[in-house]
Amino acid sequence: MTNSNFFRPVALEHASRLVNHGPTVLVTSSDGTRRNVMAAAWSMPVEFTPPRIAIVIDKRTYTRELIAASGAFAICIPGAELVDLTYAVGSASGRDLDKFARYNITATPGPELGMPLLETGCAAWLECRLIPESHTEDAYDTCFGEVVAAAADERVFVKGRWSFTGENTALHTIHHLGGGNFVCASNAIQAHPL
Amino acid sequence: MTNSNFFRPVALEHASRLVNHGPTVLVTSSDGTRRNVMAAAWSMPVEFTPPRIAIVIDKRTYTRELIAASGAFAICIPGAELVDLTYAVGSASGRDLDKFARYNITATPGPELGMPLLETGCAAWLECRLIPESHTEDAYDTCFGEVVAAAADERVFVKGRWSFTGENTALHTIHHLGGGNFVCASNAIQAHPL
Question: What Pfam families does the database record attribute to this sequence (chains A, B) (predicted)?
Fold first, then answer.
């Protein structure tokens, strides 16, 4: 497993880059006493500055209950080595089991909001304050959040940019196709002017 | 370039799978007379059934003007061979030039809403009816849409599922990291139970 000591702060104006390419993420939440982690394939940035994101979280989930209580959540971006864990925490409810204990997940409290952050095996995280939008939360399960802190593993996010190479494949982001099938962010291409 | 004759309809209950993994897409629009194509990295499904998506389109764009006029848009998913075109149409405004003419883009009218659809070099498309949500359109440039028709190239989307292999790399979806740097959806991994 990768070592969390490689995490470095990401400037907030670069935070949208962490999810710009559509990775499947882990959503962590806590109300101060209880905590949870789930997987989410549906998220996107909506603004660079201030850095804001949207994420779809089913209103029936334990995570939504905890987010409603705290007004906060975090997004942790798993690397390829966490593909089994990502699928596992996306397939069980935190109402039924403590997924941190069950899967031996280590979390550290976020610097701004105290959200549980996963670093081991992850490529990056973003700590977010919920922007209450009751209509979209109800109608589309879509929650908006403002990123208030972010960090990334310096072996794969270098000088404000992702660097996916053959040397860091365990930290390549994963993108869920459905049914436990994922692809990795690999095979970089640089566009050329037409 | 790939041949568009490989496009086959995608059942609407499978349409969310086309964008589940976060590809960068082309947004096409038309008001019946004028038309446009732009790139968008920020989109996601929000519901399986009915199939609904959210996409961020800056309110100052020509595309937003055309969508407001027609209440419709399409999402075309470029394959890796269109990386230069994707970056090009994302870097110029349709107010300044006819991008279809400038880049020699062939489009066919969509079956439900008549939106311009790109097939050559693309892996899939989704024709969408705008769901008017003035607050999120204004506050977050986030537009919601319901997918009313979808199709995909049968060489890369097989029996309702993406199949990215070494045989169809030109149709692998692309995911923008920023500054014209893209990664491809490659290196499939199947998650195993923990």
Answer: Flavin_Reduct (PF01613)
pLDDT on residue B4: 53
In the predicted model, what is the mean pLDDT of residues B101-112? 97
In chain A the domains, ranked by start, together with CATH numbers, are 4-184 (2.30.110.10)
Taking contacts as CB-CB distances below 8 angstroms, the residues of chain B near A87 are 191
Does the CB of B64 have a partner CB in chain A at under 8 Å?
no
Rounded to whole angstroms, how far apart are CA atoms B94 and B155?
A: 32
33-62 of B, contacting A, C-beta below 8 A: 41-47, 52, 54, 56
Cα B61 from Cα B168, distance rounded (Å): 33
Q: Three-class SS of residue B179?
A: coil
Predicted local confidence at residue A5, as pLDDT: 87
Kindly tell me if the per-residue pLDDT of A61 is higher than 70. yes
Q: With an 8 Å Cβ cutoff, is A193 touching chain B?
A: yes
Q: Counting beta carbons within 10 angstroms of the beta carbon of residue A48, is it exposed (0 to 12), middle (13 to 18) or buried (19 or more)?
A: middle
Tell me if A136 and B136 make a contact (CB, 8 A cut-off). yes
pLDDT tops 80 at residue A89: yes
Taking the Cβ of residue A135 and every Cβ of chain B, the question of whether any pair is shorter than 8 Å is answered with yes
Cβ–Cβ < 8 Å for B131, B144: yes
Site of tokens 């109608």: A139
C-beta atoms of A46 and B86 within 8 A: no
Are A169 and A185 a contacting pair, CB within 8 Å? no
